[in-house]
Amino acid sequence: MFEMEELMTGTDAVAHAVRLVDVDVFAAYPIRPYTGVMDRLARFVANGQLDAEYIIADGEHSQFEIGKHASSVGARAFVGSSGTGWLYAMEAIGVTATDRLPVVALVGNRALDDPGAFGVEHNDALLVRDLGWLIAWASTAQEALDNTLIAYRVGEDPRVRMPVAIAMDGGYLTHSEHLVKVPSKEAVKKFLPPYSLGDRVLHPDNPISIAPQANEDWVMEIRRQNYEAAKRSRGVIIDAYREYESVLGIHYDNPFIEELDVEDADVVLIGMGSASVVARSVVREMRNEGKRVGYLKLRWYRPFPSEEIRKSLKNVRSVGILDRNFAMGAPDNQAITSHDIKSSLYESTNHPIVTDFIAGLGGREISRKEIRKMFNLMESGRTEKVYWIGVRE
Amino acid sequence: MTEQRARNDDEFKDAGLYKGVHSVDLEEFYTSGHRTCQGCESALVMRGFAKVAGSRTVVTGATGCMYVANTSYMTTPWIVPWMHTQLAAGGASAVGMAAGIKALQRKGKIPKEKINVINFSGDLGAGDEGLGGISGALQTPYDLLIVIYDNESAANTDIQASGLTTWGAQTTFTPSGSKERIMQKRWKKNIAAMMAIGHPNVKYVATACATFPATDYLNKVKKALAAGGPTLLHTIDPCPKGWDYHPRYSNILGELAVKTGIFADYEIINGRVKYTYDLRKRERLPVKKYLEKQGRFSHFAEEDYDYVQSMVDEMWEEWELPGILPIKGGLSVERE
């Protein structure tokens, strides 16, 4: 079932997943920190481990357009970028979604210049949260590999047909090594059906026109179809995890979220990405001290797990949100994930206090001490709605 | 010269070149449904390459008038499979399709056959925003054709100047005013030659006019599709709406663009130049004959005609490769 288990970086884990899905076309353009995935894929091609067309693009815009158009002729495609490179591709990212082409892209989260920082911030991936991309967030290399395999299955499902972004913290996950179990090709083949666009494929045997000009006469219906697909993606994701477990024996309690000691907690911190590893360790430590704390990790950001969050937090008194992003001038001056979480909680019977913790920007480390500080602020009753943690005042 | 010409023609002896208008295929792959203007030469460019390429073809069209006017939802004129691509994505769209088809054929996922991959991009898309992407496409090993249809403005957006607009032309971005008679002060980019010179691996680059000389454009499409690897065609498309003239004069203006030398008509086949209309040997008509028939130059003073004429003279009399390579007088070497 597995071909190996070894130490590898987060980007290498994704590269193995891309090799295993037998991707047909991938396009590369260098930018730290996602780029390791392309370095590894290039070596797979050079060594005959992957049979794919490999294109070094002239920029991220072309890179993502190449992925989109390869996908349109029925080829399984992979692209990726980070930070400002991701933004440079933004036009192509938008139409990949509206063309409903299931390209999978790695976004190695990186700060948006200026100043030219290459540390992690989540703004890059979060910028596409409303464009019609599904977004999965990894906190370990194993999860990155699993997310990628599942992404192809979910995105390519005829009920969905949406592109999927695999988000991963730059540096902390792209470049750190974890023990990863790499499935065998046969197992992946069993899990992932061949990519087929059916009667929407661009081929001389199927002479269709894709994305002809339409305005107020048809665009609203087209958007509605996309909206329904995004809604359907929830069920398809649940099926995919079930199938993933039955083929590979890899179990996730819940596809969308990961709870640690949330059930009987008074205060819960919510976050995503590599800081989850630190936060979980702090929760275990504080539990040993008798504190009723918990941690809730988001694995999928789109579709957003509102139901799971409401259910998970139904008895919680105070919620903290670890926001590794900024939202200048946003409601209550809180950052991005706060808004999605608070909006989900509005429909809940329980309305915990929500405190936003902005931390770890530009790749700054989020320490155990700081996570502890967040829990302490929540427990003692916060005086502010937003705290910047670990910033020089 | 004769020997070279024979060699060039020999290279395409299997391409089935048309010998006169009566030998042109009747079947169309770009038909009714489009909403282009009367006298639209860009529509003839579309019709021509689709006719030549035939049914085993996939096409992308970059945003531009040939997208907006061509493909209203549910009235598509394309008989061949067609997809929209973004303004700057002409080159990348062709690469993506060609790479995808190649991988799928090699892996046995679709039957092996020759499928023509064609992108058309207008002067705004190809000449400005999409320049880098087309350059990237020309560096790939894929069989693909980029057609730059050039009507010298953003013709469905309001007639704004592009990097390929003729010097002095009035557009909505470059209106003639009481203080500034000439607002369009940029010289037209020499795009086909730029691409040929910058990408020495490319086997076929040509310029063309859809209607003059007859069948020439169609045969250039045939050659581009037969040459192998990435290829490029740049057409000059008179535009009644943007250039401000009666639609019945489109073909005359195309012919004059070539005969006055303001648009050099040539092929570069494996690095060898072949003039389609060789103005080194033929009489070159005064450029005023071309300019004065268009409303977009109605504000021209005599000195403006003279200036454009002087630039065209320079193209044909001083450039190292007339109309193509703007290097003058060869090497400049300091002698000891």
Keywords:
heterodimer; A: 393 residues; alpha/beta; Rossmann fold; seven-stranded mixed β-sheet; 16 strands; 21% strand; B: 336 residues; two-stranded antiparallel sheet; 15% strand; globular
Account of the 3D structure:
The complex is a heterodimer of chains A (393) and B (336). With 393 residues, chain A is α/β, with parallel strands linked by helices. In chain A, helix 7 links the parallel strand 6 (134-138) and strand 7 (164-169). The N and C termini of chain A lie far apart (53 Å). The relative contact order of chain A is 0.12. Chain A is globular, with a radius of gyration of 21 Å. In chain A, helix 1 (10-20) crosses helix 2 (36-46), helix 8 packs across helix 9 (219-248) and helix 11 (306-312) packs across helix 12. Chain A is built from 13 helices and 16 strands. In chain B, the strands form two sheets. Chain B has an eight-stranded mixed sheet, with helices on both faces. Chain B has helices at 2-11, 41-53, 65-68, 90-106, 123-129, 131-138, 191-198, 216-227, 240-243, 250-259, 288-291, 302-317, and strands spanning 57-62, 82-85, 116-122, 144-150, 204-208, 230-236, 266-269, 272-275, 319-321, 325-328. In chain B, strand 1, helix 3 and strand 2 (82-85) form a beta-alpha-beta unit. The longest helix of chain B has 17 residues, at 90-106. The chains are: A alpha/beta (393), B alpha/beta (336).
